[in-house]
Write a structure and sequence with these properties.
- With 419 residues, this protein is an alpha/beta fold.
- Helix content is 52%, strand content 9%.
- It has an 8-stranded parallel β-sheet with strand order 1-2-3-4-5-6-7-8.
- Strand 5, helix 13 and strand 6 form a beta-alpha-beta unit.
- Helix 8 packs parallel to helix 17 and helix 10 packs across helix 12.
């Protein structure tokens, strides 16, 4: 590895380009221990390795005795400890809690250290100070943020099929606005998007889905009334068409509000999930239909990495966010970096994001992994004479920090002086 480049990347201030971090009281209310740190992603690998759903639930329950949970956890941990998910936790255990190797002798004292450090300021201690993170793009779907340098990415779709009436009632109550027809709901959407701007939102979030047929406003208005009067989950073809229409209207509002559309693409957390439904190429009709909107496509589209690189190269309104992919498959991330460096314009990439809910410590581990992988991959480009050192350094600075301000331009308003 090129030592000078490695040291630069490890030491620079960076953007954490995707999190779901909740207000700190959510973490402080938990009784965390060493096994609980594996609950979000690494527990999926435990299940994939053969741990039963019942045992997984018990192992991740802090109210069950730690000794019992360790006996369940230990044999499966041996099977997953080298996966990216587990490596992120192990990195956090080593750097933040002084645990070089998790075993029978260390799980209890390390758990005591984790509990002792679970106190106010944990996010800034681990990500800001220790992790040198100067900016967080946070999809906790709340205006409240855990640290001052964290900025909200909120929901694109204000309604969804399975909770249509519940969500609609919530919005009507929150904004003191009665919805009686499609026109009145579109008016409410405009009010909500203005509210996003008042609360420092920098983007809106959606999930890639298979393309649906396009319908006009008149047809959508009829479907809306049918769904409104049904008083039960929508479902059916008319609902799918209506929600596709609504998504288009929300994207138009996002573009007018200068909010970037963040999109989950590819792999899904969990086990036995059909992640083909979120394949990155499903986005192409939307990208073509909304040339004035900015789309930040998440997770390197894993496992469709080459497709993701091609989409980022081909569309002027697309950036590619590599968040979480460095945890799913670190080796694939490194291979992708070399391809991206040689094919995608330098201003269109965000290099990393921890993507956790109550785990700033595990996010620290994932982000350190990403820095190391980025340094290793760009060092390979230098070794192969694809990049000069200064070119690799500039790419790293763009991908790790400054690109965030052009990909999410609302940051320039809400985070002055940080560009």
């Amino acid at each position: 590895m090129h030592k000078k480049l490695h040291d630069y990347i490890m030491g620079m201030k960076a953007a954490d380009a995707h999190e779901h971090l909740l207000p700190e009281e959510e973490r402080l209310a938990i009784k965390p221990d060493v096994i609980w740190l594996f609950y979000q992603y690494a527990s999926n690998d435990l299940r994939s390795a053969g741990m039963s759903e019942k045992d997984a639930k018990t192992a991740m329950d802090p109210d069950v005795s730690l000794d019992k949970r360790w006996r369940i956890f230990k044999p499966y941990y041996a099977l997953i400890k080298n996966t990216g998910y587990a490596q992120g936790v192990r990195c956090a255990l080593k750097d933040l809690y002084g645990c070089d190797e998790l075993n029978d002798k260390t799980y209890l004292p390390t758990s005591e250290k984790i509990a002792s450090q679970n106190k106010p300021g944990i996010t800034d201690r681990f990500l800001g100070k220790k992790g040198r993170i100067g900016l967080i793009l946070n999809c906790n779907y709340l205006y409240e943020q855990p640290v001052p340098y964290s900025f909200p990415i909120v929901r694109l779709n204000l309604l969804w099929e399975d909770e249509f009436h519940k969500r609609l009632r919530h919005l009507e109550t929150q904004y003191k606005f009665k919805v009686t027809c499609l026109d009145s709901f579109l008016e409410l959407m405009t009010i909500v998007f203005k509210d996003y701007g008042r609360h420092n939102a920098v983007g809106v979030k959606m999930v890639a889905t298979p393309p649906a047929a396009i319908i006009g406003k008149r047809q959508a208005a009829g479907y809306f009334l049918k769904i409104l009067r049904r008083k039960k989950p929508a479902g059916g073809e008319c609902a799918a068409l209506f929600f596709s229409f609504l998504q288009d209207k929300a994207i138009e509002l996002a573009a007018r509000s200068n909010l970037t559309v963040a999109v989950h693409c590819g792999y899904l957390s969990g086990v036995n999930c059909d992640f083909t439904k979120t394949r990155i190429t499903h986005m192409i009709p939307l990208l073509q239909r909304h040339p004035d909107a900015r789309f930040d496509l998440f997770h390197l589209g894993y496992p469709w990495i080459e497709e993701a690189i091609a989409v980022a190269k081909a569309f002027t309104n697309v950036s590619l966010n590599l968040c979480w992919s460095h945890a799913i498959n670190p080796a694939a991330y490194e291979r992708a970096v070399a391809g991206i460096a040689c094919s995608v314009p330098a201003n269109k990439i965000l290099a990393m994001g921890g993507d956790t809910w109550r785990l700033p410590d595990v996010s620290y581990g994932f982000l350190k992994m990403a820095r190391i992988s980025l340094a290793r991959a760009l060092s390979g480009c230098i070794h192969d004479s694809r990049l000069a050192f200064d070119e690799a350094r500039v790419l790293a600075e763009r991908w790790l920090y400054s690109n965030a301000f052009s990909i999410y331009p609302q940051l320039k308003l809400h985070a002055p002086g940080k560009e």
